[in-house]
Give the backbone structure.
Amino acid sequence: MTTRDDADTTGDFTLWRPLRPAEDMPHRRVLVVDDYRDAAEALQLVLEMDGFETRVVCDATEVCEVAQQWQPFAVVLDIAMPGLNGCDVACRLRANPRTAHMLLIAFTALTSTEDRARAQAAGFDAHCAKPLTPQRLLGVLQTVAGR
């Protein structure tokens, strides 16, 4: 992962590491996590229209178990959620050998310099500001999915 100074930042999107297509990806699964179900389902529709298999989780306490069992290549994760926040979830995903490899994208309204630094420190690969036009996010997911 690159340092914050080397980050690729384009408006509402910050990428902290170069992305390479995953050569052995058996599927195009993306896990969308947001406590606001309508927002999660709207993003799910956009991703599915682009050919991604998508699941939605609205309870942050379920994310690690779903990710471990379903094995998505990417997790698009809200930060500000009740109970367990997205940074805590990211740390748990990174600490588990079965989920540590997943592409983690913070998808959040928390966009200050400090918020981005916390997300990077928690292990996120990228930071997306809400509201988001989906083209940049789709581009990142397509790159990693080898498309």
Summary: Residues 37-49 form the longest helix (13 residues).
